[in-house]
Design a protein that fits this description.
Layout (H helix, E strand, L loop, with lengths): L8 H13 L4 H5 L7 H4 L6 H18 L15 H12 L15 H13 L2 H22 L1
Amino acid sequence: SLQLANVDKKEFARLTRRAISNLGNLPKLASSPLTNLPAITEQSSANPLDKAHALKALLTESIQRLKPQKDADFGITDEWRYFNALYFPYVVGIKPYSRHIDKEFIDEASLQALDWFQVSVPERTLHNWQNKGAALIAEDLLNRI
């Protein structure tokens, strides 16, 4: 299993960031060392895909915990930036800077987020927010171990 004692916070944040970016790719998620977190090994079989599903659920839950207001689906204030930067691209799966986006199957909050990213958030800024958000998720995971 992942020897957390041997992993510093910076490395754990890097592993978390990589796992979040692979949320939509179960085989890649299955190869993450984070599938050996105690929260995952306790609740899932040794099957790598079961562990990947458990890790995806754990990361998604942590991302949801970044959401500032439970009654709103989207916001553009500073307190929303890390949630938006992780939730919409990785949990929902929208690619804000892609040329071809099929808006037909996107819900209203995701459409608002898409427009906000394209109009107000430079790609480099989004990348920085995703890194900072992933560090917050890593901290959340470490606090729950």
